[in-house]
Amino acid sequence: MDSPERIAVVGAGAVGLTTAFDLAARGARVTLFERDDPGAGMTGRAAGICYDAYAEDVDVAVADRAMQRFREFDGKGEFVFHETPYVFLAREGDDASATALSEAVERMQVHNRAAELITPDELADRFPIRTDDVALAGVSETAGWADPSAYVDLLVEQCETEGVEFRVGEEVSIRTDPPRVVTVDSVVRFDAVVVAAGVHSRALLADAGHPLALKPYRVQALVAECDYDGPTVYDATDESYLRPHPTGVFAGDGVEPVAADPSDWDSSADEWFVEESTAAVRHRTETDPRVERAWAGLCGATPDRNPLVGAIAEGVSVAAGWHGHGFMWAPALGEMLAADVLGDDGPIPESFDPRRFDGDEEFAVVDGMTLDE
Ligand SMILES: Cc1cc2nc3c(=O)[nH]c(=O)nc-3n(C[C@H](O)[C@H](O)[C@H](O)COP(=O)(O)OP(=O)(O)OC[C@H]3O[C@@H](n4cnc5c(N)ncnc54)[C@H](O)[C@@H]3O)c2cc1C
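^ thats the input. predicted complex w/ flavin-adenine dinucleotide below
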C-alpha cells in the first residue's frame, strides 16, 4: 500500500502516542483509540530509566536515536530529561555477572558507547553509593531518566497540535483485510492500523487471526522517601535497580518470570518485594528509605528478546514486546513505525519483524534489564 492517509493507532501509551505524533507530523490523518486515559497502561507505571549502554548494534542505534529525541523534547512543556549516570555492578562472589559485565562493556565500546569499567574504589570516589560489596562496575555517563507521565502529557499536547483525533474511553478490536477498527457502535475502515496496545496487543491481534509470540510477565516497583542524589544503579547480582526520584528513590525488580494474564493480574506489590527492595535501597544508598507507594505492572517478553515491530498483515502493524525497554525506546519506535507505515524503505530493523514467529512458540520469560542485551 502506498502512503496511507487515514491511520488508526490503538493505545495511547508512550509508543502509541509517539507513533501518532510522528504520523500526524508527516501529514497523515490520525485517530488514536485509547480505552482508558493516555498513559494509564504500563507507561504510567514505568521508572522512566533511559540509557544507550547496549552491547548489540541494533539496540544501540534505537536507543541512541531515542535519547537524542528525549533531549530535543527536554524543556518543552513540563517535560524534563534528567541527565543521570547509569552504574551497573556485579557483587563480590558473583563471577558470572562480573564476567558478563566486563564483556558487555567491551561490546558497548565497540559501538562507541561512552561506557567504561570502573573499580569499586573509583566508584566510591565518584558516586554517593555503598561499594564495599562490589566486585566490578560499569558506568555510562550518557544516561538519564524522565517522568513517563510528563512524557505522556507532552506527547498528548504535541499530538493535539498536529491534529490527531483522540477517541479516549473507547475499547476497540480490529479486523484485517481490509484494516478496520471495531468500536461499540461502528466499524471504521482505515488505510492502516497500528496496534500499540502494550501487553494487550496479543489478545487484540489473536482476535483478528494473527497470534503474536508475546508473553506478559509481572514486575514490581516502589517509590521511597530518602535523601539520595546519586546515579541510577543496576545490581546485576540480584537484578534490582534504583534511580533518583524527586522525593528520594524509585526502585524496582520483583520480576515473576512466568506468563501473566493481562486481563486478570495482581497490580499491587507483594510484601516480599517491598521488604527486599527497601533493604536493597537502604544498603546501596546508605539512607533510611520510607516507602511512599508500591505497585506491580506487566512487561512483554518475546522468544528472542527482540521486540515485535512492523507489519503483521496488509495495512496492520504492531509495536509490542519491549522486555522493559518500551519507554526508553519510544521516541525512536514511534518515528520508525511512522516512517514504515508511510512507505519509507527499511526504517525498522529486520530482527524486529513480528512475522519471524508463528505466535504459538513455547518460550521462557527472560527479564530485559540484563548485561547480555
Ligand atoms: C514497574 C515498571 C517499570 C518500568 N520501568 C521502565 C524503565 O525504566 N524504562 C523503560 O524503558 N521501560 C520501563 N518499563 C516498561 C515500560 O513501561 C513499557 O515498555 C512501555 O510503557 C510500553 O509502552 P506501550 O505504549 O507499548 O504500552 P502501554 O503504556 O501499556 O500502552 C498501551 C495502551 O493501550 C491501551 N489499550 C489496550 N487495549 C486496548 C484496546 N482494546 N482498545 C483501546 N486501547 C487499548 C491501554 O489502555 C494502554 O494505555 C517499566 C514497566 C514497569 C511495569
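The radius of gyration is 20 Å.
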